[in-house]
TrEMBL record:
Keyword Transmembrane assigned: yes
Annotated InterPro entries: AA_transpt_TM (IPR013057)
Name this polypeptide is given: Amino acid permease 6
TM regions (residue ranges): 26-48, 54-79, 177-201, 229-250, 271-290, 310-331, 374-391, 397-415, 436-457
Subcellular location: Cell membrane; Endomembrane system
Major subcellular location class: membrane
UniProt keyword annotation of Transcription regulation present: no
Length: 467
């Protein structure tokens, strides 16, 4: 099926769907993927491996990587439908599900995607503030000693991060964020490398025996039997969250130019991005566990297993902050776009909704200002910041986000769309294999969600906001 359009693919200004010509390549797409995948998830991997142990921890890291790679490759062919090269474009995840699966699945996808996009921006706000506090603590420990009381409240720094995001959120659309993603991807390499380097240095130091094991933390020594179960479930969610980027996958593919075909470019970018992140994840998780043993902190760059060199710990946390500034925008932009598109279609004559004003900013250029965009995006950032202040539970929040993200968006919808797009015969070996994978991942997500919710409930019992 070839789409007929008044716009030619060869047109200098427009693509075949009438949109301004896309210019993305596999390099920019890989940068977007690395930015989206390597986020706050990498920081909890040493803790997650400690809960699972050497065998289950390693297997789980590799398994989640392979599942994410498989389902992502399946989804690249669904960007155009019904033909994967000449069909109509599906510029968003929801549009893809609507066109291929339709009906109630489209609504369920929208609920899952936007809930998780919002959740990730909350998680990134929380993690960035933790890293800001970690820099302050690191300097305090260096100056006054490791036994000093260097406790600092997170919420003022959470607010500072939110204020910065208010200004950054005024970037009009996702296609203008390539530079931000590339900077953020470099930062992610930086802090993951620092964490790996510090772990290797700590292992090389020796000095005292660190308890590690094939099955992780020991019942009766490190944790109670019930805590072992809950933490194991939560660890699965933490690892699942580490690979969460499906909710922006289609939006990333929609930035690619048409030649070569988008699905070919995106497959290359997906293999590149996931291979790079899996290598870093294995190094961070396994070396972090070797460095800290069963006492691995929930966040291995802010849990202060590392005190010295303090300046390197500071640089690592600064890289995290810069990375999360970019990652917040990668995940927030689809939410911004959805509300603004709905508003302009609902009230097309409203100047508040549709009119843009050009404002010249010295040294920056011309800023396209729209009143809906200014007010809506500002309110969104304020609300997500407040939620991050009220619920600052890193591992439990990360585990819950991973649990509710992984199954529907990374596994279920990509598989169902593939089965429809490829017209896979019902009850064939491929169909049965895909359905079994669906069932397995559903069970993993459910137990991870239960473990994370239990963690949040137990932490709420002792937590007082704004202290």
């Amino acid at each position: 099926m070839v789409v007929q359009s008044s716009f030619s693919i060869e047109d200098d200004k427009y693509d075949d769907d009438g949109s301004i010509k896309r210019t993305g390549t596999w390099v920019t797409a890989s940068a977007h993927i690395v930015t989206a995948v390597i986020g706050s998830g990498v920081l909890s991997l040493a803790w997650a491996v400690a809960q699972l142990g050497w065998i289950a921890g390693t297997v789980t890291l590799v398994l989640f990587s392979l599942i994410t790679l498989l389902t992502s490759i399946l989804m690249t062919n669904c960007y155009r439908y019904p033909d994967s090269i000449y069909g109509s474009r599906n510029p968003t995840y929801m549009k893809m599900v609507e066109n291929i699966l339709g009906g109630i699945q489209y609504k369920f996808c929208g609920l899952a995607q936007y809930t998780n996009l919002v959740g990730c921006t909350i998680g990134y706000t929380l993690t960035a503030s933790i890293s800001i506090v970690a820099i302050k603590k690191s300097n305090c420990f260096h100056k006054y000693g490791h036994e000093a009381d260097c406790n600092t409240a997170n919420y003022p720094y959470t607010a500072i991060f939110g204020i910065f995001q208010i200004f950054l959120s005024q970037i009009p659309d996702f296609h203008e964020l390539s530079w931000l993603s590339i900077v953020a991807a470099v930062m992610s390499f930086g802090y993951a490398s620092i964490g790996i380097g510090l772990s290797i240095a700590k292992i090389a130091e020796g000095g005292h025996h660190l308890e590690t094991g094939l099955t992780g933390v020991v019942v009766g020594v490190d944790v109670t039997s019930s805590n072992k179960i809950w933490n194991t479930f939560q660890a699965l969610g933490n690892i699942a969250f580490a690979y969460a980027f499906s909710m922006v996958f289609v939006e990333i593919q929609d930035t690619l130019k048409s030649n070569p075909p988008e699905n070919q470019t995106m497959k290359k970018a997906t293999v590149t991005g996931i291979s790079i992140t899996t290598l870093f994840y294995a190094l961070c998780g396994l070396l972090g566990y070797a460095a800290f043993g069963n006492n691995a902190p929930g966040n291995f760059l802010t849990g202060f297993g590392f005190y010295e060199p303090f300046w390197l710990v500071d640089i690592g946390n600064l890289f995290i902050i810069i990375h999360l500034i970019g990652a917040y925008q990668v995940f927030a932009q689809p939410v911004f776009s959805a509300v603004e598109s709905w508003g302009s279609k609902r009230w097309p004559q409203s100047k508040f909704m549709t009119k843009e004003y050009n404002a010249r900013i010295p040294l920056v250029g011309t800023w396209r200002m729209n009143m809906l965009r200014v007010i809506w995006r500002t309110m969104y950032v304020i609300i997500t910041t407040l939620i991050a202040i009220i619920f600052p539970f890193f591992n439990s929040i990360v585990g819950l986000l991973g649990a509710v993200t992984f199954f529907p968006l990374t596994v279920y919808f990509p598989i169902e769309m593939y089965l429809t797009q490829a017209k896979v015969v019902k009850y064939s070996s491929t169909w049965i294999g895909m359905k079994l994978l669906n069932g397995f991942c559903l069970i993993v997500s459910l137990v991870a969600a239960v473990g994370s919710i239990q963690g949040i409930v137990s932490e709420l019992e002792t937590y007082t906001p704004f202290k």
